[in-house]
Design a protein that fits this description.
This protein has a seven-stranded mixed sheet with strand order 4-12-11-10-9-5-6, with helices on both faces. By secondary structure, it is α/β, with parallel strands linked by helices. It folds into three domains: 87 residues, Arc Repressor Mutant, subunit A (Orthogonal Bundle), CATH 1.10.10; 114 residues, Aspartate Aminotransferase, domain 1 (Alpha-Beta Complex), CATH 3.90.1150.10; 242 residues, Aspartate Aminotransferase, domain 2 (3-Layer(aba) Sandwich), CATH 3.40.640. Strand 9, helix 10 and strand 10 form a beta-alpha-beta unit. Helix 5 packs across helix 13 and helix 14 runs parallel beside helix 16. The chain has 16 helices and 17 strands. The mean pLDDT is 89.
Length: 494
């Protein structure tokens, strides 16, 4: 079988006793890496465990444990009275798919399965140093350490009181605190029985689609509109029709003129900050929509995810507040300026609807009980108000700076209004140009403009650009690159 390999284990194994990983696991990981990088070849005979232990200056039992683990994973094989040999399972699995050794699945499945192109994600993997978004906050505005302290405190108390045994129960404390906070900040008069916390926005829309949509149902959305609910509602079998918008939001008269009573299942609308244009539905049209919902017998699903990013002067009454939930199902977000793991979404609606919604939520995944408890404490102790004031101050300053930069670099070449709510600007170019080329050239200069930020057809050439995640220096650099690229594309097209 030949002599043992002459290469010393010390050349490819480095023991770091400060690491949390046990020493034998460190040996396993580095041995596997040595095989993969061909420092050790398939079939090489290994020295005895005593010799390896002397080289690495570890106990022989540690080496024995490492070799046992490697054999279990298929990276060595032991032959009685002969020795232990390197075995590369990646080579043997390529020769025979039935070796019994773990191997990665194939690139393409050998069986058919359902594919949904409408659920394809529009988000690219950012590799550039700078990137725009369609409107996300800077998650560093509230220090993660503060949130972790709240979580740690709740976890410690739960351990002391035995509360960890009841994590599957409904978190009534959080629902009480959240309803109190929503009543205080949004002018509701809501008890916890009409409120359902849900972890993610995708879950909210998926649950609504299960509860409200049958194949062929007609759903009305705003022109352009938000891709996420559109994808989910479309995948559920809905027929989506768009309604034109103008400076006052969705044109309610268009619904009256083009659709019949009983034909519409529901209207999905963001009354505070329409996606992507950021326009707000006027008070007059809010009343028109509620009246038409009664006359035509349809539901309104109101998405108010941007409430926390609206100024004090823009906190106009929601459709839900005007209607009391008779025709309106209200969806919102809590703590969107917090670290993502501490954010929450919610549904507000009739009690029997929420009882059904809870069934689906519990299948899709309940919110983390201890996170809810920590968020409840943050509300109860008043910290949420301090966090929100800080976030609003930072966002207000960055919004003003972003508007100044746009005016400074583009002057009369674009039109935009500083949004009263939300975290993005809607920017229209006065002359058409290739946004695809603008995107490609910007990327070469280190600035990513995702496809979801581009809007171009025969009528408009526009960008929806998020600003709140960028600090002043990043903002200046991003706008500089955008301006430079814009000039280049414009010159090419002339």
């Amino acid at each position: 079988m030949g002599s043992p390999v002459s290469i010393s284990f010390r050349t490819f194994v480095r023991i770091d006793r400060r690491k949390e990983d046990p020493v034998y696991i460190q040996i396993v990981y580095q041995f596997i890496n040595a095989v993969k990088t061909k420092l050790l070849e398939d079939g090489d005979r290994l020295p005895g465990s005593r010799k390896i232990a002397e080289e690495l200056q570890v106990h022989r039992k540690t080496v024995v444990a490492a070799l046992a683990e490697l054999q279990e994973q298929g990276w060595v094989r032991s032959l009685p009275n002969t020795g232990t040999f390197v075995k590369n399972p990646e080579l043997s699995s390529a020769k025979s798919p039935h070796t019994g050794v773990f191997q990665n699945p194939p690139e393409r499945a050998a069986f058919s399965f359902r594919k949904e192109f409408i659920l394809d994600s529009p988000f690219p993997e950012p590799q550039e140093k700078l990137s725009f978004t369609d409107g996300t906050p800077d998650y560093g505005m509230v220090k993660a350490q503060e949130l972790l302290r709240s979580y740690g405190s709740v976890l410690k108390r739960a351990k002391q009181t035995g509360g960890l045994q009841h994590l599957t129960n409904e978190n009534l404390f959080f629902r009480d605190q959240l309803s109190y906070y929503l009543n205080l900040s949004r002018g509701f008069h809501l008890s916890r029985n009409f409120l359902l916390p849900i972890a993610g926005r995708e879950q909210v829309f998926s649950i609504l689609s299960r509860l409200l949509i049958k194949t062929g149902d007609l759903i009305l959305v705003e022109e352009l509109s938000y891709f996420l609910p559109n994808m989910i509602f479309g995948q559920a079998g809905a027929r989506l029709k768009t309604v034109p918008i103008d400076k006052d939001g969705m044109k309610i008269d268009h619904i009256r003129e083009h659709f019949k009573a009983g034909e519409i299942r529901f209207v999905f609308i963001n009354t505070r900050c329409q996606y992507p244009t950021t326009v707000r539905l006027s008070e007059k049209r809010k009343l028109q929509l509620l009246e038409l919902a009664e006359q035509y017998n349809f539901i309104v699903v109101e998405d108010d995810a941007d409430f926390e990013f609206s100024g004090a002067k823009d906190r106009s009454a929601s459709l839900f507040r005007k209607d009391g939930g008779n025709r309106v199902i209200y969806t919102g977000a809590f703590g969107r300026f917090l670290t993502p793991g501490f954010q929450m979404n919610f549904l507000i609606g009739p009690k029997d609807l929420l009882e059904e919604a809870r069934k689906y939520r519990d299948i899709f995944g309940k919110p983390n009980f201890m996170i809810e408890k920590a968020l409840g404490e943050i509300i109860h102790q008043g910290d949420i108000h301090r966090y929100q004031r800080k976030a609003q101050k930072v966002i207000s300053e960055r919004k003003e700076s972003f508007a100044q930069l746009l005016n400074s670099h583009f002057k009369d070449e674009i039109s935009f209004s500083t949004p009263s709510s939300g975290l993005a600007f809607w920017i229209r170019f006065k002359e058409p140009l290739s946004l695809t080329r603008l995107q490609e050239n910007s990327r070469k200069k280190g600035l990513l403009i995702p496809g979801i930020c581009l809007y171009q057809d025969r009528r408009i050439t526009a960008l929806r650009l998020g600003f709140a995640h960028l600090n002043q220096q990043e903002m200046e650099e991003a706008i500089r690159i955008l301006d430079e690229t814009y000039r280049e594309v414009k010159e090419i097209q002339q």
